[in-house]
Amino acid sequence: MMIAIAFLAVPSTTTSQAAVPSFAIVTSGTLPGAVDAANVIGHERCGKCHASEVGAWSGSSHAKKSYNLLSHEKAPAFAKALGVTGNLAQSVCGDCHATKQADTVIQGVSCESCHGASGPERSIKGWFSIHSYYGKDLKDRKKETEDHYKKRIAASHATGMNSSSHLYELAKNCLSCHTVPNEKLVNAGHPTSSRFELVEWAQGEVRHNFQIDQTVNAKSPSLWLDPHWNGKGRTSANRKKLMYVVGQLVDLEVSLRSRATATEGDFATVVGRRISSVLRKLKKLDHIPAVAKALAAVEKIDRTALKTFGAGDKKLYGDAADAVGAAARAISGSSDGSDLGEVDVPDDAVGEAFLDG
Ligand code: HEC
Ligand code: HEC
Ligand code: HEC
Ligand code: HEC
After folding, report:
1. Cβ(278)–Cβ(320) under 8 Å?
2. Is the backbone peptide bond immediately before 120 cis, with ω within 30 degrees of 0?
3. If you placed Cys at 156, which of 99, 127, 128, 223 could pair as Cys (CB 3.0 to 4.6 Å)?
């Protein structure tokens, strides 16, 4: 489907009038991959309007620790295992420990590693200008028309923005780094975040839900909770239920994809354990139709098959991963958590949340 977004083409900060192109909405199939370096604008620019978010991020391991691990004593051995020489930040290591830009590297996992590359700037091909443009000279989001709102949100997503509503894409980015889906690396002893669980890992030091009130780090995204466009009834408890379920489904998807190409060795063992552990958790949630669908896709695989490796694995596990991913994407797009029934959500948090209001 093609939509014209002429009304969005000229945000108030833009000086030149560009021709008005239209673009295809991405509806399915595409998954977030490594961030598009050419279109990364950088956290400093976000800070102009998101000062508290940048403040919280600056104190997190993503800003303070992930990059420095590239100078860790074990780094040379990992680089050797991948045949990487030269500047590690600009190599494949930098995809997970930094944020690559067109001609430089941000020292850490930053805003656009999770929310998607936002450029090009001042163009309707990038969400940087689109995502906060309510209309000509409009600063109050409550005065935006509903039609404009809907088009703005659709255009932001179509240009690669993962907002707080896109839990599937956000979770996929976390897990694509934290499960370390790279056989050579893991077989060389590079760790994986074996305990990663989305709610716990997003609630602590990573939490930065300041959009509506920059002095309060809300328990869940303030925009997502706000009844203005969403209607009443959204709660943080329901948001966390949805996050937990989507997090587990995406974990299973990503792990099945790793298993599809694994050969016998440490990586396969780590991945096999992860699949078994996630399946145990998901079985407690089989009253949720999307979970039941995902489990049905995996049940087709003989459990003992996890221990044997062969040419058929790519298709066997790849097909199951596709089905699980489709279930995760569907529930992420359709549920606000209120329809999920009983879900036992962990209430620990990794690290301390910043500026806790
Ligand atoms: C010119 C000011 C401005 C700049 C610069 C800016 N933003 Fe925003 N951003 C906003 C406003 C205003 C909103 C609230 C939009 C709404 O009401 O839907 C917002 C919302 C968001 C949201 C939440 C969307 C949701 O529904 O969950 C994210 C994520 C975000 N911005 C990320 C970024 C990132 C990353 C950057 C830098 C690459 C950035 N923004 C730069 C003003 C800005
Ligand atoms: C681009 C890769 C990447 C993405 C995307 C990513 N992380 Fe991380 N994360 C890292 C690296 C690297 C570290 C540093 C590891 C360390 O602190 O030992 C880290 C550290 C963390 C830590 C601190 C862990 C600790 O042991 O103290 C938390 C919590 C965390 N990430 C949560 C998340 C969540 C939640 C998401 C998704 C919303 C996410 N991460 C997305 C790469 C990533
Ligand atoms: C797919 C994403 C990914 C890639 C690629 C990657 N890392 Fe990591 N790295 C991580 C994550 C996530 C962690 C934290 C794991 C955890 O929770 O302990 C980590 C941890 C580390 C550590 C800490 C080791 C320890 O024992 O505490 C070092 C050192 C490191 N990485 C170096 C590298 C180097 C060098 C490369 C490139 C050769 C690289 N990484 C590539 C994601 C990645
Ligand atoms: C590790 C991944 C990650 C990084 C890095 C990250 N975000 Fe987020 N962001 C998220 C997730 C996940 C949510 C939804 C959190 C939740 O549900 O509690 C979110 C929510 C938001 C929101 C909505 C908050 C609200 O109150 O509605 C804004 C705005 C935002 N991020 C901006 C930023 C900016 C600006 C940066 C860089 C300074 C940034 N984010 C860095 C993953 C990330």
Report:
1. no
2. yes
3. 127
Taking only Cα atoms into account, the Rg of the chain, rounded to an integer number of angstroms, comes to 21
Burial bucket for residue 239 (CB in 10 Å: 0-12, 13-18, 19+): buried
**What are the pLDDT digits (tens) for 136-193?**
999 999 999 999 999 999 999 999 999 999 999 999 999 999 999 999 999 999 999 9
How many of the other CB atoms lie within 10 Å of CB of 26? 11
Using most ligand atoms within 8 A of CB, pick from 35, 190, 197, 200 the residue to mutate for ligand 3.
Answer: 190
pLDDT score recorded for residue 356: 62
d(CA 36, CA 291): 32
Which residue do the tokens 């949720």 mark?
288
Ligand 2: residues whose CB is within 6 Å? Answer: 61-62, 65-66, 96-97, 109, 113-114, 170, 173-174, 177-178, 201-202, 204-206, 350-351
How far is 280 from 276, CA to CA, in rounded Å? 6
| CA of residue 174 to ligand 2 center, whole Å | 7
CA distance 212 to 223: 7
CB 267 within 8 A of CB 183: yes
User: And the tokens for 143?
Assistant: 């005065």
pLDDT of 123 strictly over 90: yes
Please check whether residue 191 is in contact with residue 78, taking contact to mean a CB–CB distance below 8 angstroms: no
Q: Residue 218 CA to chain centroid, in angstroms? A: 19
Nearest CA-CA partner of 275 in 328, 326, 317: 317
Q: Give, in order, the Cα–Cα distances in Å from 348 to each of 142, 186, 260, 356.
A: 35, 27, 32, 15
Ligand 1: which residue has its CA nearest to atom 12?
Answer: 132
Closest CA to 110 of 64, 62, 68, 67: 62
Distance 66 CA to ligand 3 centre (A): 8
Tokens 């897990």 locate to: 175
Q: Which residues contact residue 78 at a Cβ distance below 8 angstroms, ignoring those fewer than 6 apart?
A: 93, 185, 188, 189, 190
